[in-house]
Specification:
This protein has one domain. The protein has 8 helices and 4 strands, in the order αααβββααααβα. The strands form 2 sheets. A two-stranded antiparallel ribbon has the order 1-4. Strands 2-3 form a two-stranded antiparallel ribbon. β2 and β3 form a beta hairpin. α3 runs antiparallel to α8 and α4 packs across α8. The longest helix is centred in the middle third of the chain and has 27 residues.
Length: 251
Amino acid sequence: MTYGEFLAVFLLPPLLLLASIQRRLKDRPFPSHFVPRNPSLALLFLVTVAVLYTTPWDNYLVARQIWTYPPDRVWGVHLGWVPLEEYLFFVLQTILGTLTFFWASRTGRSQAEPLAWSRRWVYVVATLSAGLAGLAGYGLWIGWEKGTYLCLIASWALPVVAGQWILGGRAFLQHRRILGLTVFPLSLYLWAADTWAIRSGIWHITEATSLGWHLPGGLPVEEALFFTLTTLMVAQGALLVYTWRPGKAFP
């Protein structure tokens, strides 16, 4: 199976299914305390942010050969060091995450009011995320080779998670069921798809820069973390789009 075939088999069917569900649910309202937004513009915004933020990082990882692609599994069209299929993957993943959020927002329940203890947890999560990002940066600085992939993921994703919680942590806690319905099933699906891709040789995680710890089925723990954090960033980003009001800080 080539990378393009992987995208056609594993990403397009759930995208088409969720798009069909979105059309059927378009008359069902979002939670009443969501700010009215145009779903197409929200989706375009999130995809644009994902592309701009992910492209330099992805190119660095490929240039360092932290992950690689056999030449016979890709089309041979590269933008920088990264094959075109990889760009399509993180674009399609962002769309998939946003459509899952749209579905969850129309089916999941939210708390009527922010939890009394939510302010404390906002700062706990934001501080913990920032601290772990700092530790990851330190790991890169001292040259921890086996932890390179792990540290690159954490130092790239966790500052975003921390910033999102500073901006909208109380909203995340208030709408935690919606976030859970978005993040958990989609992360598990992407874990399974990634496991298939690695076992099929579509891409390869370099052992020298990986911890060598695997989930059942052979998925490297770094890959599981990567897809969980990217799905979380998309879900929280979408929730920020629908709950942020100019001049109002959530925490």
